[in-house]
Amino acid sequence: MNERNDVTAEDTFSEKAKAAFDESVDNLDGETRSRLNRGRQAALAEIDRKRSAWIQWAPAGGVAAATLLAVVLWTGNPAVDELAAPAMAADIEILLTEDSLEMLEDLEFYSWIELSDETDEAMEPANNVG
């Protein structure tokens, strides 16, 4: 029952506040109304000006974003090395010849030679004369 009285009291207060506001607005003189109306119109014009300025730059921003995307996509893929293709073809030709079968049979021997060359280079003393 207490909640019912609170709701009624809030409704009564709201109605009285609205009535007092409406009465104060109705009793404004012409000069005050005119000044309020000019202020309202100036505020609305400012909002429209800011909105139109933003809309004016939106297409330029879109073009800049599209250009940036195109540059990133274009430069993101490295060009194919034109010298690599003939070198790869030469390697394939070597592997497809009959002699390559003999090379494959002796592959372990070639690996051993390469490894021994690397260890010989590492074991050479540095020439620190001076």
For the structure shown, list the relevant keywords.
84% helix, 2 domains, mainly alpha, single chain, 130 residues
Low-confidence stretches: none
Termini Cα gap: 109 Å
Structural class based on helices, strands and sheet pairing = mainly alpha
Helix content: over 70%
Query: Any idea how many domains?
Result: 2
Largest sheet: none
Radius of gyration, whole Å: 44 Å
Secondary structure: number of strands: 0
Helices, by number, come to 5
Question: H/E order of the elements?
Answer: HHHHH
> Quick check: average pLDDT?
75
The outline comes out as rod-shaped
Strand residue percentage:
under 5%
Question: What does it look like?
Answer:
The model has no long low-confidence stretch (mean pLDDT 75). The protein has five helices and no strands. It is mostly helical and 130 residues long. The N and C termini lie far apart (109 Å). Helices cover 84% and strands 0% of the residues. The chain has two domains: 75 residues; 40 residues.
Short structural summary:
This protein is an all-alpha fold and 130 residues long.
Present the secondary structure layout.
Elements: H1 2-26, H2 30-76, H3 84-96, H4 99-105, H5 107-123
